[in-house]
Specification:
The chain contains 13 helices and four strands. It is an all-alpha fold.
Length: 316
Amino acid sequence: MGKILNKKWIPYILAVLFLLLLNFTVPNFGTFSNYQNILRQSCYIIIPAVPLTLVMVSSGIDLAIGGTMSISGVLSAMMVNAGMPIYLVLILVAIIGCAVGSGNGYLIARIGFPAFICSYTVGEILSGFALLTSGGNAVRVDDTSFLRIATSTFLGIPTIILITALLAALGTLISTKTPLGNRIYALGGNATVIRQEGINITTLHMFIYGFSGLYAAIGGFFLATRLGAGSPVQGQDYTLNCVASCILGGVSPYGGVGKVSATIAGALVIGTLRNILNMLRVNAYVQNVFLGLIMIIIVAFTVYYRKKNERALRRY
């Protein structure tokens, strides 16, 4: 009983109770097809949220995710329509996303731009470029091979879920089993120590933000296969969803604390909430307000406990 009542189990117990409650109160929620639908929808949040965990752990933020996903989707659709092989399209948009992210990292570390302003501005530029190149309209794709990606399965498991699992495993491996992951956590905890060890801060930032841009571009590509088009606004809500997933997963906005696995759990919670609100026909804008309020509450608790711990340390 002591282990069951341990604080670390409380969120999981509450999540199970919450799901049980939904099964009895929301019509058609507790069906296998709906659970599979939640997993599919959550994949497009999990992919860009995995590297965002590392960005936030390093005491940064990447608000260019939505813009990267939008331009990635538009460019993917245009290149596929031009007859380019699908695998090459994915490689090219991944390179573009990685390059944009690395550029963000360089500006933040080398030039000294605040991460919030830099990534937000770049995200807006990318969103604007997506609108310009598409003429403000979704670029429809008729290539059946491209459209089939979103609905394809392997051994009965949706391909997008398998791809997401592989990408998440890579992010977990980097963060927990490599010296690079240790440096990222150290950067968020105490950047001075990193500098004293002679580690190139600029290169580290370029990797972190490049990794985020890479995953955001991949997420945008697969989102376009699901929509059947590259929409210039397809990534509009994903920045909020990804940040909310990290916050719900316990990633500290101050850096140094967070796990990829917990972020994935947070993304599944966001996916479930979105699914419920859609089934209840709640307006999309109201959904964003709801998620924003949840984030404010969680951050408020984080600030409260941080200050409480600081006061406790001063006593000693």
